[in-house]
Amino acid sequence: MIFGNIQNSMLEGELSLMPKPLSDAICFLKDHDMAAHEPGVFQLELSGVPMTLQVLDLNTAPRESLRPEIHRKNIDVQFLASGGPEEAGFYSDDGTGIVDEDLLDTPRDILFYQNKEAAPEGRIRLIPGSFAIYFPWDVHIPAIWTGSSPAPIRKIVIKVPLKSCLTEHPSQESVL
User: Fold this and answer.
1) SS3 assignment, position 165
2) Which domain of life does the UniProt lineage start with (predicted)?
3) Distance of alpha carbon 47 from the chain centroid
4) Nearest 10 degrees: Cα torsion 63, 87, 137, 171
5) For a 10 Å CB count at each end of the chain, is N or C smaller?
6) What percent of the chain has pLDDT over 90?
7) Of 68, 88, 65, 66, which Cα lies nearest the Cα of 78?
8) What number is the average pLDDT over the span 150-176?
């Protein structure tokens, strides 16, 4: 997982360490007013890599009402464009999660786990401009409320194909 903010003075250095498709996605978010973008699902191409852009208007919710999720074919670049704040839970997928719903073989490329009280879950707090990048081994729980009531958020998700980040090291794909 990578966590940052597009306003960070060291963003350029952070981006230089990322695979180009991920840095392109962050630059797209930085260079476009995503708070003003119409909601929906859109196809996007950055530097020749096809990606999916989701613009979602949601409300944060209590942690216990949300399910942990993972993706296998895509890397999720999640961005808080407005509203919030929002917390997101995360932990490493150790293979012990109990599957609640498996949609990995659908265009959504998502698997939901049942909540596991013993999961070593960490938290990050997102404010507008914050981004989190979740890899296939990162279980994540977005849209957690920070207090005791829901907050509206404009959440942007760019789905970056995992394969596009492995082109320099194709042998790594078999590891996943």
Assistant:
1) helix
2) Bacteria
3) 20
4) 160
5) C
6) 88
7) 88
8) 80
CATH numbers and ranges of domains, the chain: 2-165 (2.60.120.370)
Distance CA 122, CA 126 (A): 13
Q: Where are the alpha helices (DSSP H) in the chain?
A: 11-16, 20-31
Using the structure block, give the residue that is written with the tokens 């840095």. 23
Q: Which two tokens stand for residue 165?
A: 């980040």
Query: How does residue 107 score in pLDDT terms, banded at 50, 70 and 90?
Result: confident
> What is the C-alpha R_g of the chain?
16
How many C-beta atoms lie closer than 10 Å to residue 7's C-beta? 11
Instruction: Choose among 104, 101, 121: nearest CA to 113.
Output: 101
pTM greater than the 0.85 cutoff: yes
**Phi-psi category of residue 33: left, alpha or beta, with phi > 0 → left and psi -120 to 50 → alpha:** beta
